[in-house]
Amino acid sequence: MQFPSISLIIPCYNEAVRIPLLFQGLRDFDTQWKGAYEVIIVDDGSNDGTDLVIQSNPFYADLKAQNKINLLQQPNTGKGAALQLGIAHASKDFMLTLDADMATSPTTLVRWLEMRNPFSAKEVLIASRELKNSNVSDSIKRKFVGNIFNSIIRLTVKLNITDTQCGFKLYPAHVAQQVFASLQTKGWAHDVEILAHANFLGYAIIEMPITWRAVEGSKIDVLRDGWKMFWEVIRISQLQKTWKALKKK
Question: Is residue 222 scored above 60 in pLDDT?
Fold first, then answer.
């Protein structure tokens, strides 16, 4: 197989307890990925010592000695903003965004590469927990809310995607840099804007199978954040009109 170079972009907010999971996932990836890679962790204003736990991990020191990892820090601004910062500092040919809890292991990329070798510079590959060949462990409540949100997205933003919110997404570098540079949605619904923008620019969005396990400690409050995400989606639908108007000029 042709292994491209990969930047792994991992946002963190108060993840001190789950940092061991993060580094176990990185260790597994290190043993399986045969190409060049770098890890960019963005600490989004954590107040639980996440940065200290990261820097005290032995594998962090190993990767640091090889110039394979970079820890960035910013005031708490939101997951979208954290990814935006990480993308701006990334340097490899493809960029993988993923969550710190490693609900989906980065070794999943090896499986994806076997399915779509080589990765295309015109495709965004996104994990979908809704595909029949995905292996998912999740609560009924969370799945129900997710299905409602995705229905709203299909109606409002006209994105025919079954799962926009899984954090595991692979972008060609030039696509990631283009869509994240203009990102306006800094919170949980940033995925919707990113995918809508990539779709508007003509890039194919391909849903891919994964193994995904719910990990305790989710930062999302269904009621509080659900309303925020709903209004963010409405705002994104207005952004689409702006993109179309600018294209006509």
Answer: no
